[in-house]
Amino acid sequence: MKRFFASDFFYDFVRSPVALLSFLIVLFLVLSAVFASVIAPTNPFDAASLNLMNGFTPPMEPNPFTGDVFWMGTDDQGRDLFSAILYGLRISLFVGAMAVALAAVMGVLLGLIAGYMGGWLDNLIMRFADIQMTFPSILVAMLIFGVARGILPPELRDEMAITVLIVSIGLSEWVPFARTVRGSTMVEKEKEYIAAARLIGLNRWQIMMRHILPNVLNPVLVIATITLALAIIAEATLSFLGVGAPRTEPSLGTLIRVGQDFLFSGEWWILLFPACTLLALALSVNLFGDWLRDKLNPRLK
Amino acid sequence: MVLILLRRLGQAILVLFIVALISFLIFRYVGSPVDNLLSQEATVQQRADLEEALGLNDPVYEQYFRFVWNAVNFDFGNSYRGSLPVAELISSRLPATLELAFTSALFALLLGVITGIYTAIRRGGLLANLILTLSLIGVSLPTFLIGVLLIWVFAVELQWLPSFGRGEVVKLGWWSTGFLTLSGVKSLILPSITLGLYQLTLIMRLTRSEMLEVLRQDYVRFARALGLSQRSVYFKHALPNTMIPVTTIAGLQLGSIVAFAIITETVFQWPGVGLLFINAVYFVDIPVMSAYLLLVGVLFVFINLAVDLLYLAIDPRLRDSQLSGDS
Amino acid sequence: MLQPLLEIKNICVEFKTRGGALKAVDDLSIDVQQGEILGLVGESGAGKSMMGAAILGLIDPPGRLSSGEIWFKGQRIDQNPEPFRGCEISMIFQDPLVSLNPLKKIGDQLVETILRHKRMSRAQAIDRACRGLIEVGIDPERLNAYPHTFSGGMRQRVVIALALASEPSLIIADEPTTALDVSVQAQILKLLKKLCDSRGTSIILITHDMGVISETTDRVGVLYAGRLAEIGITDHVLRSAKHPYTQGLVASTPKIDPDSFGRSLYQIPGSMPKLDAIPTGCAFHPRCTMRTNKCSQERPPMMKDTAACWLLEEME
After folding, report:
1. Which of A198, B117, B257, C85 has the CA that lies 20 to 30 A from C112?
2. Chain A contact for B134, CB < 8 A?
3. For C168-177, how does the pLDDT look when each residue is reduced to its tens digit (9 = 90+)?
4. Per the structure, how many domains does chain A have?
5. Residue A136 lies in a domain
6. What does the pLDDT read at residue A301?
7. Is the pLDDT reported for residue A274 higher than 80?
8. In the predicted model, is pLDDT for residue A54 greater than 80?
9. B119 and B180 co-located in one domain
10. How far is the alpha carbon of B152 from chain C, nearest alpha carbon, in Å?
11. Does C91 contact B225 at a Cβ distance shorter than 8 Å?
12. What ipTM describes this predicted complex?
């Protein structure tokens, strides 16, 4: 730990206002999401606690009927927007992080196999990656989402929506991980320590997992950060389009979708606050990811 | 050149067959064609009869080729919702999507190239830096949020432009166009900006970096040393060389514009194929999903092919190396 | 004495960096007579190319001409070099492979240049372009060919045709043969020399190759760390160099001569200083075998119009 604080990396980080600020915002948002149940004044999922009389209360103004004050206002059902945003942030971050984890595990594994084994397996994996990359990942995610809903029985569709969302976004983002890992694996496997490992009789799987994997993981961190921004935006987009998180478990995208409906009747706050939160999250993850890429691995582009 | 074309064509057809395979698998195994044609009370015998009639008991490869053959003849089966032929649904909505995609591509390309050149030539200038900073924010903004914000400002607050639909359209045979009426054109503005903004920033950044790269080349310095005017150096010598990579990327982006149209069409309730697709995903309307996948696949493959051809047309070096057979 | 074609008076080229301004060319004066071929020789980084670019006002930022004057045919041109660029003064760059726009036919490049500087119809310009190509030994049929269909030597011929298209009085040739095969180098130099002789065009030939200097140039200027070390008639300089740097340079040039076979070449000890670490006094003094105390303290001026070295002062 001490070594980390004394490193060039830490020095550059503290010196870069963009990196520091974006990291602090991400940290702040993540902490708010983790402790949502502690911070939030109400539980937005608890239908019993909602008071319809509180519907459409503007921010910072007392409700004319109940006198309650909500500093970000309420939606049509009287749900406190601040609490809804905290819980929505939690879902957005959770889906984003899990999707990236899935994409990273899958991409790293396939990349390792393709790079180390070579031959027809490599061909198969990489050609498939090529074809998938011809399509924008958001479209791939939508397709997987639709197919998954088709396979699930109708009664499970809403219940499993979050899982399905994670799988669809995860499966749509694995290619960059695989391509990078495959490239570095092909470099690593020619090195002498791999020949040595082979000589002492380790099998392929052991060589891949114990020897090559630790040496190709560096760029994965950078790709993961950048993919996290993409995944958060993908989740918000799908939810906004109505094919993501359901209204019973609203993410930031779902909240924005709901907010858009009330734009014309003048309840602007239902849209504005979730939108700003999403913007802050996406922008700061993006900026931090860019900085990380420039610092750790300028060749990744 | 003929050889290389044939090879590209071969690759394209292979990709199409794979996309068709995925599309077929979705059509055949995710959706169950029988369930949607029969009522819940149908007997086992009725089911078996229908399965036989639909050819579901034939070998899989036969079913696959039948699927491809039908698709070539624009027969994608019937939508689960409303039982309309999918081909009819798509063809009635295609003009809306294509007009939207065309307008926003034009907007993105023109403005992207112009601002890209400007920011390259006036490198470090005040306006150039401002444009660059704005573009950074533009890249981070999710498309749907841009759309919603535009609606808020221009449709709700200022009430200058409509927030949904295509406005009045004029029928030209089976094509319906919004270009010919005032309300149609006004309706196009916000969706086109929403759809084109991301591509605009992308094309701008690419044009800028390519232009800066080209301006460093010796032939540009030589052109300057020969006393050619600033304008000629920038636009006759540097720009064509810049446009080669820009054309490639911009061409490929054309495909993603059609795909991203799904988002824009939902925000603006634009009656195109994207909206059709997202509703299909929501209601698990498998035939529509599988047809859309095929359609987009064909489109992407054709765009890739067209970009390759364009590449050959504008770069004499490539043209000759392909002619002489080495590549 | 006749008025020189080009007079360069005390120019400096500076690069602004975070560590302050670096001088790539430092207080350099030189002139070019009508019809002569002036060689500029020096190691890479000595400021030769920078000088060439400075004459045409083609220094890329962050570099700039920070002081001094450049006079051409009695007019001061350093403030506004643009009207002279390509018209009265042309330039040829090092690598012909990248000097031609890959997307334009060579005929179009020629015609564009001719029309830019001469008032004539397009047909006349095409005719002139054909004659230009014939002069450099290229079949005028190839007017419609793209640059990539030519070999390196042929491309440099096209470049020469382009540079001569506007009938300039001065051509700055920046290492015109360095990127070419040795066998082609001599052809190109001969061609350039022949064409310029017949027109009375002067050439500034920038090179690091002493062989090229001895074969082609009338006079030679030796550059070291952005400063002029020595200048004089080529024969004199090569035979009896005054500046120790020039002496080292001449001694370290290989000669094809049976007597010197098997003898190892002379090497100047050390290497040229980087721009941010130029020694005080004479820039060459740390490498000089004949240095005195004065050399490290005071920068030597040009002595007797031949060399910037304190040794010449002592000889008086």
Report:
1. B117
2. no
3. 888 888 888 8
4. 1
5. yes
6. 43
7. yes
8. no
9. yes
10. 45
11. yes
12. 0.81
